[in-house]
Task: inverse folding
């Protein structure tokens, strides 16, 4: 198991360097003079321009600039935002819990409902329920989630008035960010009703963000389950006189989960893409909204290193899924 | 009373009027007996046993006058009552050991599962018993095998594990569905020997489904020959081999290569097994039978006592030798 | 001397059906796929004949009829079947004209990623030592970035607009083509017919494009369909974020972005563009499912 993890870790290093190259190149690709771009619309006199070039290291050859960049990264220096003068790392870490909280809730929603629907659809193959699940999941898979969010707001917030329109918690409550997770922070605070309020704020964004993963997981679970139920070892399990639920869940689902887990891992990227849209719609103060605003404001250090951080995040999650995959699937663990 | 008594078993797939895959099958097995079922692929051997085990799902339809095992009618039991018998008193070993074990669990887990389910053993006691079972099926280094995953075992080893799982509940009847077909030739004899050894030791009945007539001749006390879903001849070894009553049995025996020694070509039975749409009105063998008479084409014979065996034929062979 | 072959009546059922006919039979058995195809034909028709189909000029502002509801609601006017938006522009005309843009973005981004994707995939498959793994590493890196985020980043650098949207979406969907092609090529390279072609002296280009590529097309066609639908979705998302096609061009996503402010007063300005996106994407995905089942039975239960 240890060597399995070590091998996977070894694969990460070149990927990581590739990402730094990419984010480095990203900024170089901006058309026009980088100093002028960063200084905004103001006219820059030649002396200041030269100073800025010097300060930013832009007069050095490209490879030296890249080495500088990586060197800074290695020291944990991710630069600072042009707008707020805050360090990028600080902004990222203070906003990330909001995105994580949303993503976790969305995944829980998608995972539980998707697995359940997928398994039942597979067991009742060809039934009305099966057709319904397949139809709904195809629609969910095709959903423009930014529109889906608006529709849910229109119905539940505007029309019924059940859920709040935006934000993480009502401004009435004064919540100290201890963990960064609003659900936990509101529980820790002695503000009455804050937890319920935070929960209400989470419901719609979680549904919106979870819609596509839900569809994918339901479809994948169904097809994977159907495949597994045809296997010989299912017949063996039944010949042992085991109860149908034990056959399905212990012998079937465990094996059916293996491909689903891979898909689950791949959904992390989808989830972060979705977070950009969901956070924009619900004014959710997370990294997706942060990045979009940075792009709008041409805050290039934030764009560059924000993308770097998110890419690293995706790589780490995929790595974790890989390891988990090895744990669930003994064949992988012992191979290669 | 016989341990297993099957009367007029029919298995169909799809609608109740579909051509039966198993057609009016009668069969009985005594305690401690070895019965072989032979016949070509698709003749309904495995389906019969799956029906007995309750492993046939919709759209399969099972009907029988009786499907009596150990004094209980398996068709009349509720699903949960049947599951108390299946896997304990009535167990089965399947054809391909490489796919019959769950790849996600260790050998030990899969054996202990049976012990937990049927004998109420758990923890150390189950572990101990699983170890004994692995020793019983002659697996070398059984302690380390308990924690092995199926993909780490060879085919022969996997089949031994599957057998250990099957005998864990000390069954009264073990069904072995072509247990050696998927194995290397060198391993086949070992597995066969193991099964027969266990059968004697535990005094359990054994139904052996096989293509291999040589194995049947050496091991079985009785043989059931199946053709197109019907039992065409049921008789004792060695009489059935020496003086077959049914033309199909004769043809099967003639097709053994040793019987054709010196001949230009192997003996074969011309034609193919009738399918869904060309099932003859009369005897199912009538289109291929070398001894066919007009009456064979009109009516189907029943499985009736003949000189040495039960045979489904109007004009059985070798009757005068008696 | 000529031998007269007697005319033999050929049993039609024994003839192999032509591959197209066989494909159509399999495809048309899938009702959802046929429904998707019909809907897409409608959209394509609308897109091609937009100036004639649309009842009004999509940018003509009827100042006297701002936010008119659809015709079946109270206050609806028969000249605006689906109502008007905040500037009094006819919604139906804008949706019809918008279909041109969406289809064009979808089509051009698929072409722009399919061709380099296939080339890179072929190279990756045929040179498994150095070139292949390095191409795949590069694709892994691109896959590590969430697709919309990568597209957003590209647009952020190149600036918003139609062409940049197409480029961004094409770049984002490149890795899946490369991976798919390479996997298919690696599978085919072990087949005997490839060895036979090699022995017959086929050069590398011939091996790549004539021998191997046609046998890898089935999954690629399916993928192209699916990435067509996600291109439409991504383009709309970029438009919604204000990074795609700029107003007043009637693009579905851009229309939604400007409709957000009227969520409380005029549900139709919000619902209808999104519904159009959903239905088009759904139709293409239904078609994709049908194509996959018809072209590649092996994939039937995958994904």
Result:
């Amino acid at each position: 198991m240890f060597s399995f993890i070590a091998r996977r870790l070894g694969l990460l290093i070149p990927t990581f360097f590739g990402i730094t190259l990419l984010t480095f190149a990203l900024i170089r690709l901006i058309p026009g003079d980088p100093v002028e771009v960063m200084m905004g619309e103001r006219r820059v006199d030649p002396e200041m321009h030269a100073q800025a070039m010097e300060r930013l290291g832009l007069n050095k050859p490209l490879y030296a600039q890249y080495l500088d960049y990586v060197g800074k990264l290695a020291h944990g220096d991710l630069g600072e935002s042009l707008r707020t003068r805050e360090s990028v790392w600080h902004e990222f870490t203070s906003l990330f819990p909001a995105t994580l909280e949303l993503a976790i809730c969305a995944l829980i929603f998608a995972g539980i409902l998707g697995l359940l629907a997928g398994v039942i659809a597979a067991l009742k193959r060809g039934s009305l329920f099966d057709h319904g699940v397949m139809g709904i999941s195809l629609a969910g898979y095709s959903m423009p989630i930014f529109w889906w969010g608006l529709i849910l707001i229109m119905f539940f917030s505007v029309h019924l008035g059940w859920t709040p329109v935006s934000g993480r918690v009502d401004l009435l409550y004064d919540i100290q960010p201890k963990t960064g997770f609003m659900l936990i922070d509101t529980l820790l605070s002695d503000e009455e009703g804050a937890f319920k309020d935070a929960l209400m704020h989470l419901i719609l964004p979680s549904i919106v963000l979870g819609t596509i993963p839900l569809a994918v997981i339901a479809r994948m679970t169904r097809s994977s389950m159907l495949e597994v139920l045809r296997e010989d070892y299912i017949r063996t399990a039944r010949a042992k006189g085991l109860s149908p639920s034990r056959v399905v869940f212990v012998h079937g689902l465990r094996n059916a989960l293996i491909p689903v887990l891979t898909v689950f891992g791949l959904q992390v990227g989808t989830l972060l893409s979705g977070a950009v849209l969901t956070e924009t719609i619900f004014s959710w103060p997370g990294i997706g909204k942060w990045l979009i605003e940075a792009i709008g404001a041409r805050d290039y250090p934030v764009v560059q290193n924000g993308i770097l951080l998110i890419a690293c995040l995706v790589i780490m999650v995929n790595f974790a899924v890989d390891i988990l995959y090895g744990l669930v699937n003994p064949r992988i663990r012992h191979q290669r | 009373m016989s341990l297993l008594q099957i009367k007029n078993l029919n298995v169909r797939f799809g609608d109740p009027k579909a051509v039966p895959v198993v057609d009016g099958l009668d069969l009985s097995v005594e305690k401690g007996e070895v019965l072989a079922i032979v016949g070509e692929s698709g003749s309904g051997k495995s389906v019969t046993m799956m029906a007995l085990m309750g492993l046939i799902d919709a759209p399969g339809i099972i009907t029988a006058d009786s499907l009596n095992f150990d004094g209980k009618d398996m068709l009349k039991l509720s699903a949960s009552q049947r599951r108390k018998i299946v896997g304990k008193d009535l167990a089965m070993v399947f054809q391909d050991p490489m796919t019959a074990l769950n790849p996600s669990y260790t050998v030990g887990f899969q054996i202990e599962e049976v012990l937990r389910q049927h004998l109420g053993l758990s923890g150390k006691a189950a572990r101990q018993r699983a170890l004994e079972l692995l020793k019983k099926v002659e697996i070398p280094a059984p302690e380390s095998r308990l924690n092995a995953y199926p993909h780490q075992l060879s085919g022969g080893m996997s089949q031994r594990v599957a057998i250990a799982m099957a005998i864990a509940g000390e069954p009264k009847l073990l069904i072995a569905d072509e247990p050696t077909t998927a194995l290397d030739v060198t391993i086949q004899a070992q597995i066969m020997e193991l099964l027969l050894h266990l059968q004697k030791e535990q005094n359990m009945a054994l139904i052996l489904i096989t293509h291999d007539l040589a194995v049947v001749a050496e091991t079985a006390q009785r043989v059931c020959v199946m053709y197109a879903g019907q039992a065409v001849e049921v008789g004792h070894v060695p009489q059935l081999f020496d003086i077959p009553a049914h033309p199909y049995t004769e043809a099967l025996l003639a097709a053994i290569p040793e019987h054709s020694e010196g001949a230009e070509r192997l003996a074969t039975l011309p034609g193919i097994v009738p399918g869904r749409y060309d099932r003859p009105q009369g005897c199912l063998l009538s289109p291929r039978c070398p001894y066919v008479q007009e009456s064979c084409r009109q009516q189907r014979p029943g499985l009736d006592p003949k000189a040495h065996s039960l045979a489904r034929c109007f004009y059985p062979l070798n009757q005068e030798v008696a | 001397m000529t031998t007269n072959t007697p005319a033999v009546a050929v049993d039609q059922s024994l003839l192999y059906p032509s591959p197209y006919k066989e494909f159509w039979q399999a495809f048309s058995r899938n009702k959802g796929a046929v429904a998707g195809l019909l809907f897409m034909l409608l959209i394509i028709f609308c897109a091609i004949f937009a100036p004639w189909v649309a009842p009004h000029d999509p940018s003509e502002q009827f100042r006297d009829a701002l936010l008119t509801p659809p015709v079946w609601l109270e206050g609806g006017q028969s000249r605006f079947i689906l109502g008007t938006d905040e500037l009094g522009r006819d919604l139906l005309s804008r949706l019809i004209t918008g279909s041109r843009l969406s289809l064009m973005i979808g089509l051009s981004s698929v072409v722009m990623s399919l061709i380099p994707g296939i080339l890179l995939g072929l190279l990756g498959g045929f040179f498994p030592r150095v070139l292949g793994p390095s191409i795949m590493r590069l694709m892994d890196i691109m896959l590590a970035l969430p697709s919309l985020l990568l597209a957003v980043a590209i647009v952020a650098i190149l600036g918003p607009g139609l062409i940049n949207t197409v480029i961004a979406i094409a770049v984002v969907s490149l890795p899946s083509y490369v991976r798919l092609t390479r996997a298919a090529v690696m599978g085919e390279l072990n087949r005997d017919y490839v060895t036979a072609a090699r022995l017959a002296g086929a050069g590398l280009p011939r091996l790549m494009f004539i021998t191997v590529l046609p046998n890898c097309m089935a999954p690629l066609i399916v993928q192209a369909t699916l990435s067509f639908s996600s291109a439409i979705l991504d383009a709309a998302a970029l438009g919604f974020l204000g990074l795609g096609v700029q107003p007043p061009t009637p693009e579905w996503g851009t229309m939604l972005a400007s409709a957000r402010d009227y969520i409380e007063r005029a549900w139709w300005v919000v619902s209808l563009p999104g519904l159009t996106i959903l239905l088009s994407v759904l139709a293409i995905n239904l078609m994709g499912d049908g194509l996959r089942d018809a072209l590649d039975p092996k994939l039937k239960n995958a994904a």
